[in-house]
Amino acid sequence: MKKQENESFSIDEKKLELYNEMAWQERVSKKQMEPDIDISSYLVNQGFEIIRADLPDSITGILLVDETNEEKPLKVIAIKKGKEKPQSRFIVAHEYAHAFLHKKGTLQFAHRDYENLANNQQEQEAEAFARCFLMPKELIIPLCTKFKEDRDLVNKKTSKEDLIEFVRNNFDVTVKKANQRIRELKICEELHVPC
Ligand SMILES: [Zn+2]
Fold it and tell me: What pLDDT, on the 0 to 100 scale, is given for residue 4?
């Protein structure tokens, strides 16, 4: 069973559309429309503290929010030290997604993520929101379209791997996340790239 692969696709299209909309609104309202957004600075500007920590082996990231003291709210995202930049960026986006989607009205909220993400709704939602935030439809589709068109002009064939590489470089994400996003947005089908 390819459980791992299917995990991120069990989010339904409507929800994905909604998350994309919410994530894009966030970015537009803060004027952060560049593909390789500096997510740490973005969140620091919103009062988060981002820490790189020596977390236990199985743990990738932790979110801790405590707003009981209104004057001194605590919003911390801890990510495991030693991860490559594209991975760290995604973990930060994933923790932010929990704060954005799941904290709701509570003043205190904590969440912990493991290397092997639990296959439950909250985790899939956080993953989907993180993909939408780091690779908004409004950026990835026009950029991929232009990439393909420029290659067409010089009679260069475009493969799915070329698209993944392009997205990985431009959005500073891992191959795996680039691939997931391309698939969920059906970019290959859209651009007539063989998948
Ligand atoms: Zn999570």
Answer: 47
Distance 96 CA to ligand 1 centre (A): 9
Ligand 1: distance of its center to the CA of 120 in Å?
9
Q: What does the pLDDT look like over 150-167, one tens digit per residue? A: 999 999 999 999 999 999
Domain segments of the chain as ranges = 1-134, 135-195
Q: Is the pLDDT of residue 102 over 90?
A: yes
First to last CA, the chain: 21
95 CA from centroid of ligand 1 (Å) = 6
Q: Is 86 helix (H, G, I), strand (E, B) or coil?
A: helix
pLDDT tens digit sequence for 20-66:
999 999 999 999 999 999 999 999 999 999 999 999 989 999 999 99
- Separation of CA 93 and ligand 1 centre (Å): 10
Ligand 1 mean position, distance from CA 192 (Å): 34
- Tell me which residue has tokens 């020596």: 54
Q: Which residues pair with 55 in a beta bridge?
A: none
Q: CATH number of the domain at 1-134, out of 1.20.58, 1.20.1070, 1.10.10, 1.20.1050?
A: 1.10.10
Ligand 1 centroid from CA 123, angstroms: 5
Tokens of 3: 């459980």
Which of 22, 10, 7 has the alpha carbon at shortest distance from 137?
A: 22
For residue 32, the CA-to-ligand 1 centroid distance in Å is 24
